[in-house]
Design brief:
mainly alpha; 13 helices; about 80% helix
């Protein structure tokens, strides 16, 4: 049986891969990018679910409500902040800022979910966030539009993600992780599409270049499909605090992938930040 820790690390890898796809396809715009990635992820999960389980659904109303609240915070509000951040700063700067959310998640988990937080989780998370802070300092790679705006949206997304984790963990008490990924997507997608289509027209979301749909679709499948499933499994097995702390290795993985695929520069801060992040993972694990 795969451990909750390994599920969390697998989620981090999927989210890192997704960030690269998003950065390459972000010229579609922040809101269309969220719509496109969510749609493709939802279709992929739906088809996979039907192939494996058929039309067998079993969930409670309270579970459905909390999972969709988590979906709204993570996929829509958090997703828009995520894409707006990526529009303005590099992957290697943005993702570390986003992944300050484990510290807030630990506090919320202790107060709202009554999870027991070990000293190892706290110490490891402090090391991870220290590494993240180092990674986010200094000059980013060329092509950054507005660093202050990018940092603001990174912090905003971090807060939204933390509250989303708590809502999702509550929903997972009544719904298994596979179903949870699927049922957390349709309602947030519709609630975002309605105001967007009223403002820009019903067909506006179909007016982008083919490459954008491919890149954002692949990112959605990797991050929101596989990544969400692995993370939900981790939440179920080891709790919100430990799962989010381990998943915070994402900035390190994203930085490495950005170096290779996006030609972002390696810096002393990247090396030091990576060392602190890996040390934090080792302490928690």
């Amino acid at each position: 049986m795969i451990s909750g820790e390994l599920y969390a690390l697998a989620a981090a890898l999927c989210w890192s891969v997704a960030a690269i796809f998003y950065k390459k396809g972000i010229d579609a715009g922040a809101i269309p990018a969220v719509l496109i990635r969510t749609f493709f992820a939802m279709i992929f999960i739906l088809v996979t679910y039907l192939v494996i389980r058929g039309w067998n659904f079993d969930f409670t109303l309270i579970g459905f409500a909390f999972l969709n609240l988590g979906g709204l915070l993570r996929l829509i509000f958090g997703g828009m902040a995520y894409m707006m951040g990526l529009e303005n700063i590099s992957v290697s700067r943005f993702v570390p800022i986003l992944f300050t959310f484990p510290l807030l998640t630990i506090l919320l988990s202790a107060f709202l979910l009554h999870e027991n937080i070990s000293h190892e989780v706290v110490a490891g998370t402090v090391l991870i966030v220290l590494g993240i802070w180092i990674l986010s300092k200094g000059h980013g790679s060329g092509g950054e539009r507005n660093v202050k705006r990018g940092v603001f949206f990174g912090v905003l997304a971090a807060f939204l993600y933390a509250f989303s984790v708590v809502a999702t963990k509550t929903g997972l008490n009544d719904v298994d992780p596979f179903q949870s990924v699927l049922i957390s997507m349709p309602l947030p997608l519709v609630l975002l599409y309605i105001p967007y289509s009223m403002k820009h027209g019903k067909s506006a979301v179909f007016d982008f270049r083919k490459e954008a749909y491919i890149l954002l679709g692949l990112g959605g499948i990797a991050g929101m499909g596989f990544g969400s499933y692995f993370f939900f499994q981790s939440l179920t097995l080891i709790g919100a605090a430990k799962a989010t702390s381990l998943a915070a290795i994402t900035p390190f993985l994203s930085g490495i992938l950005a170096l290779v695929t996006l030609k972002e520069k390696i810096t002393t801060g990247l090396v030091l930040g990576t060392a602190a992040t890996v040390a934090g993972i080792w302490v928690i694990y």
